[in-house]
Structure formats: C-alpha cells, structure tokens
Amino acid sequence: MRMVVTGGAGFIGSHVVEALLERGDEVHVVDTLVSGKRENVPVEATLHELDIRDEALVALVAELGAEGIVHLAAQADVRVSVARPQLDAEVNVLGTLRVLEAAQGVGAKIVFASTGGAIYGECDAPATEESPRRPLAPYGTSKLCGEEYLATYNRLYGSTHAALRFANVYGPRQNPHGEAGVVAIFFGLLAEGKQCKVFGTGGQQRDYVYVGDVARATLAAFGLDGGVLNIGTGRATSDLELYRACCAAAGVEAEPLFAPARLGDLQRSVLDITLAGELLGWAPERSLEQGLADTWASFAP
Ligand code: NAD
Fold first, then answer.
1. Is 170 designated active site?
2. What spacing in Å lies between the alpha carbon of 181 and ligand 1's midpoint?
3. FRET partner for 79 with CA separation of 20 to 30 A, picked from 15, 118, 181, 279?
4. What is the percent of the chain with per-residue pLDDT over 70, rounded to a whole number?
C-alpha cells in the first residue's frame, strides 16, 4: 500500500514506518521535526517536512494517491498542553481536521493515535472503551476531540477511520520529554551514572506497552470498521517497580531519590484490552522485562 505516516520521525512513528516498510509498503513521512529526528526516518521512506495544519497537506496526499494514513503527529506533552492550551488545540484538533480533509480527498483510511491515560483520567479498575472520559489536561481533551471528529466523518461520509487509545508506550528511540518518557528518563540517567527521581511514594500505577506491539496493533487496525480501541497490556506497574525493573535491565544497583508528589499526576491508569483481542486478534507479545532489556540495549553507553 501507499502509506502516509504523520509524525513518522517521532518515537512511535519511526517504529510504525519500519513495520510498514517490512511488509513492502511505499511510505511517506509528514513531519516538522519539532520533536522528531531526521535520522529516525529509514532511507527507504520519503520525508516531507510539512506541518499537518498546512493546507499543502491536502495537495500532497492527493498527489501521492495515499491509500492509508497513520496519524501520529501531535503536540504530545501534557505539561505543554496545560501551559499552552491554544497551541495544543491547534495541532491536535485543527491538525487532525486537516488530516481528515486530506484523507477525504483521496478516500484514504486513517488510523489515529489517541491516548488512554489522558482521556480516562483516574482509573479504579482497568478502563474499558466505555469507561467515563475525564481528561485532567487539555491534551486529553484535544485527543478526545480528534476521536470525535473521526467518528463524525465516519457518520457523514461513510468512512471507516479508527482511533487507538495507547497506554504508556516505551521502547528504543523514545523522546524523554513526551507524554510517557519515564523509561527513557530512567535509562538516560542510569546510562550516565546519575540518580533517578521517583515522585511521591512511587506507588502510582501505569500500564507500560512495548512500542513494537503498538506498531503491530496500528497496522492491524486498518482492518477495523471504525471505532475506538484500547492498546496496552492490562498490567499495572508502580513507578517504584518500574524503577527497579529498569535497574535490573541496566545491571545497576542504586536507590532512587524520592521527591515530593507532583500536582495533577494520576494515581492509577491501566487499560482493559479485551476488545482489541476480540476485534484485532491482537495481544501484546513483549513482557515488561523483555521490552526493557531491548530498550536498555539502545541506551547503553
Ligand atoms: P513524538 O513526539 O516522538 O512524535 C510526534 C511526532 O510528530 C514528532 O516527530 C514531531 O516532530 C511530529 N509533529 C509534531 N507536531 C507536528 C505538526 N504540527 N506537523 C507535523 N509533524 C508534527 O511522540 P510519540 O510518543 O511518538 O507519540 C506519537 C503519537 O502517539 C502522538 O499522537 C501521541 O499523542 C500518541 N501517544 C503517545 C503515547 C506514548 O506513550 N508515547 C501514549 C499515548 C498516545
């Protein structure tokens, strides 16, 4: 297939591009390189340095005759969304509308990267796709808005665009300043022999999913007839457990520095992935221990 990957020079995008190339697709990356890197784009793919908000995107997608679009380009930093909500909405809402307009022009199908943690907010139990949506930051609201635009276009035009709500994604090439860069932050500091900070008691729980598993789910989602799916592991890992697992992968024995809890940090965010199993026949394959070992190999000095 002829595929466009927005945000393909970023962390998750670069793994999606690799997976598409591996199955023999022609791949075009649209990225401003604001947080992504040119070297993340394999030479077999074509990089178009363009902002998704730019109307030139519509002409580019038409000229390429794209059949599918993986839409990952985003303002993906929760703290930036709090500080600059307008910018967040411009990129995540208006940018997504531009991608929808471009897809509409050529009848291409979109798979959109949404977020679980930032949309569900605090979760007492693993969140299903039907759980209440309680974003605690503008980032979750702008992603939810993107999902709703996809669903509206599906109703209006009969398209089958699908959204995936990712849990905390980790793996090689992760940007430590992103939404869930804690693994990259820990490994970066451990590689330099520096002490890592754990906030509060370290008891906050998250759902960590390996980027290769996320790329596989993204490709499989082109078979969906629209809708929204959680992509995670269903397994809760506390910050302290994660820190210890990172130390084990790095072969380091060191105590973290406990810092005061941060205002607005979620206590618990875990996704129920039953529906992804039923509709995609997908399940995560990499355990946390294996995934961390692969990730450390890319960080090790
Ligand atoms: P990333 O920052 O590594 O990748 C985002 C890419 O988008 C970068 O290459 C950046 O240069 C590009 N970009 C940003 N604004 C752009 C614009 N206006 N036009 C064109 N390109 C632009 O982040 P990531 O972690 O790979 O996240 C990818 C997607 O997955 C995002 O949509 C994010 O919201 C979503 N997501 C990520 C996680 C996670 O744990 N990393 C969790 C949930 C959802």
1. no
2. 12
3. 15
4. 98
The pick from 34, 39, 114 for probing ligand 1's pocket by mutation, whose C-beta has the most ligand atoms within 8 angstroms, reads 34
pLDDT-derived band at 139, boundaries 50, 70, 90: very high
3-state secondary structure the chain: CEEEEECCCCHHHHHHHHHHHHCCCEEEEEECCCCCCHHHCCCCCEEEECCCCCCHHHHHHHHHCCCEEEECCCCCCHHHHHHCHHHHHHHHHHHHHHHHHHHHHHCCEEEEEEECHHHHCCCCCCECCCCCCCCCCHHHHHHHHHHHHHHHHHHHHCCCCEEEEECEEECCCCCCCCCCCHHHHHHHHHHCCCCCEEECCCCCEECEEEHHHHHHHHHHHHHCCCEEEEECCCCCEEHHHHHHHHHHHHCCCCCCEEECCCCCCCCEECECCHHHHHHHCCCCCCCHHHHHHHHHHHHCC
For residue 179, how far is the Cα from the chain centroid?
A: 8
Extract the tokens encoding 290.
Answer: 């294996």
- Report yes or no: 46 and 3 within 8 Å, Cβ to Cβ: no
CA of 117, closest atom in ligand 1? 43
Q: Is the pLDDT of residue 264 over 80?
A: no
Residue with tokens 């994604």: 169
The residue annotated as part of the active site, out of 139, 170, 208, 243, is 139
Look at strands 237-238 and 205-206 and give their pairing.
antiparallel
Model confidence pLDDT, tens digit, residues 17-29: 999 999 999 999 9
Sequence length of the chain is 301
Please, how many CA atoms are within 13 Å of residue 93, restricted to the half-sphere of its CB?
Answer: 15
| Sheet strands side by side (includes 205-206) | 237-238, 205-206, 268-269
Closest C-alpha among 81, 67, 46, 289 to residue 179: 81
Q: How many CB atoms lie within 10 A of CB 262?
A: 10
